[in-house]
Amino acid sequence: MAHQRDVSSDDPAIRANGASYMLDCIRLAQAVDSTLVSGPLYSAVGKTRLVSADQKARERARCVENLREVGKVASDAGVTMGIEPLNRFETDMINLVEQAIELIEEIGQPAYKIHIDTFHSNIEEKSIPDAIRSAGSLLGHFHACENDRGTPGTGHIDWLGVRDALREIGYEGPVVIESFTPGAVEIAKAAAIWRPLAPSRDELAREGALPAPVARLGAREHR
Amino acid sequence: MAHQRDVSSDDPAIRANGASYMLDCIRLAQAVDSTLVSGPLYSAVGKTRLVSADQKARERARCVENLREVGKVASDAGVTMGIEPLNRFETDMINLVEQAIELIEEIGQPAYKIHIDTFHSNIEEKSIPDAIRSAGSLLGHFHACENDRGTPGTGHIDWLGVRDALREIGYEGPVVIESFTPGAVEIAKAAAIWRPLAPSRDELAREGALPAPVARLGAREHR
Question: How far apart are the C-alpha atoms of B213 and B160, rounded to whole Å?
Answer without folding.
Answer: 9
